[in-house]
Structure formats: C-alpha cells, structure tokens
Amino acid sequence: MFSITRRAVAKIALSGAIALTAASSAIPAFAADKITVGALRFTSHSPSFVAFERGYFKDQGLDVEFKFFQAAQPMAVAIASGDVDYGVTAISGALINLANKGAIKIIGGALQEEPGIDGQIILVSKQAYDDGVTSPAELKGRSFGITQAGSSFHYMAHKIAQKEGFDGSEIKTIPLQKVGAIIGALKSGQVDSWTIVPHIAKALSKGPAVEQIGMVADYIPDYQVTTVFTSTENAENRQDLTKRFLKAFSMGAADFNAALVDKTAGDQAAEDMVVLIHKYVYASKPYEKAAPSIRNGAMRINKDAALNVTNVKDQLAWFQSEGLVSKDITIETLVNTDYVDTF
C-alpha cells in the first residue's frame, strides 16, 4: 500500500494539462477559404455586405474580400478570369458569351421586381419632360442611357419599346460605360431617359433636373434583375465552397428582407440595417442624407437565392434576337440549376 499526497496529485494534474496544451497547440487550425466577391455599391447588393458584417461568411469558413465595379460586364469578365470568385449583377451579353465559352455559370437569383414593392424607375431629363416626354410611350425617337450594348439597361429599354408598340431600335441607346456617367448625362440633358434602381432614381427625381415617368415592373413583370454567378470551375468542381457561399448570402438576404422589405423585424432592426449598408452605399455622404436613399432602395432579394428561370429565358431570347449572343446558346449553357430552387 502506498499513498499519494495532494501535492503529488496536483503535480500530476499540472503536468497533464501542460502536455494536453502542448499537444493541442501542435494541431494545425484549418484556415478559412479566401474568396473575392464582386459587387456594386448599390442597396441591392446588401446581402453580401450583411453576410460579411454579421459573420455569416466567416461562419461558413469563408474569408471574403470585396472587389467593387461600376457596371455588370466588367464583373463578368473578372469572374471568367479568376480575379473574382462570386458575383451578383445583372445578366449582360458579355456574361452570356462567357458562359457560352464555358467560363461562367449563373447559380442563383438575387434582386427581383415584385408587385407592391417599389422597383426600378423610368426617368427622363427635365429638358425631355418639358419637351413632352411625360410617359414611356413618348420615348420613341429619344435617347436612352446605357452602360454598354448588351447590358440590362439595353434590355429594359427595348422591352419598354416593345410593350409601347414600337421597335427597340427606335430608342437611341447611348453607351456611357459607367452609372455615374449616365447620371451626369441625364441631369445635364445629354441623354433623354434611363432606368435605375429606386435608391438612385428617387434621389434624382427629387432634384430639379430629373423626372419620373414610369416603373419597369409595368413592362417586365417578375423581372429577375440580378443573378448570382461564378466560374464554371467553382460551380462544377468546388460545390462545397459554392454551397457555403450561397448559404451565407441567403442568410444576409433574409436579414435584409425582414428589416427593409417586409419590415417584420422591427424599427430598430431596420435602423441597424441602414447603418450597416451605409458603410458600403453612399458612404461618402452623411448618414442623415444617405439613410432615406438606402431605405428607398429596398427591393426584394429572392429567398434562398431562388432563380426565376422563366425570366432568364426571356432575357436570353432577347439577347439572341438582337444578335448580341449566339442563337445556339441554351439555358443549360447559361444556368447551373444544382444549387437553388427555380421557377
């Protein structure tokens, strides 16, 4: 028989703890996957900002860096080149052509027009308005600002013309490359008209140089304004990474919708959401001036990144009818439906 003193027990325990600590420190921690996310400084891109700020990307093992753009087509090129891993923006001719080359895939939906929620607004310069362009029917023969040929602005202009009964070619589309350049041209009367998301449109129409004449939703019901897309490599061979990105993005979208679209989360949640978004949208403006515009830009982001394939098919058909993309491209070439619900 022998006895162990309390001091001996303490020494044994201490030496065991030290050994355990040393062993655990020798186990390498798994590093987060670094990804670059493309975005525009629009309220409609808020799900990505929310997912970043609230740690949803981090919770999914993603170390996110943002890269900001001023138009859709350069982002598509950046996805194809590998400079950006995931992006959210409108469908463009460049995006479709890159998909046809096997470089990128649409994997989900984001911003969508919805009845009862303010969406994209049709604007005209005060000069054009005073000259009789007081409704979209008078856009025939008038100029319309777009970023590039084959952009979403180009698509919207032609769909407006189609419903008003005249050919899209009878609207003079003026490529100005950047949203900021279109704003300047519209305010100065260098272009007659434009369409844009509400956080920009409402601010412009409150000034003396721009008038509102209609809503895009009246011309393109259920328009899938923006989509989530990535490289074909990510979509087909990095499925776990892509699922984690979409999960975090969808969580950000749910918070955004609850706070500013459905307004079910309460006043404080809405205020907190606007404060968060202000870090990225109108960040150079004082909060008091930026907040109303951010609230005005709250359009529906599809739950769980569901994708309106019906409208995407319509967009593809329009690009093909204009000769902007090959007539041989199928919806399967453009969209990978493995990740989200489609309708």
Question: Your description of this structure?
Answer:
The chain is α/β, with parallel strands linked by helices. It is 45% helix and 15% strand. Helix 2 packs across helix 11 and helix 4 packs parallel to helix 5. The longest helix has 23 residues. About 6% of the residues have low confidence.
Strand content: 15-25%
Uncertain residue segments? 8-14, 17-28
Shape designation: globular
H/E topology pattern: HEHHEHEHEEHEHEHEHEEHHHHHH
The third-level CATH topology of the largest domain is D-Maltodextrin-Binding Protein, domain 2
Biggest beta-sheet profile: 5 strands, mixed
Strand line-up in the sheet with most strands: 2-1-3-10-4
* Mean pLDDT level: 91
Tally of individual domains = 2
* Proper CATH architecture of the largest domain: 3-Layer(aba) Sandwich
Roughly what percent helix?
A: 40-55%
Q: Write down how many β-strands occur, each being a DSSP E stretch of 2 or more residues.
A: 10
Quaternary: single chain
The CATH superfamily name of the largest domain is Periplasmic binding protein-like II
Give the radius of gyration. Answer: 25 Å
Number of helices: 15
For the record, the CATH class of the largest domain is Alpha Beta
Distance between the termini: 78 Å
Protein name: ABC transporter substrate-binding protein
Subcellular location: Periplasm
Family: Belongs to the bacterial solute-binding protein SsuA/TauA family.
Signal peptide: 1-31
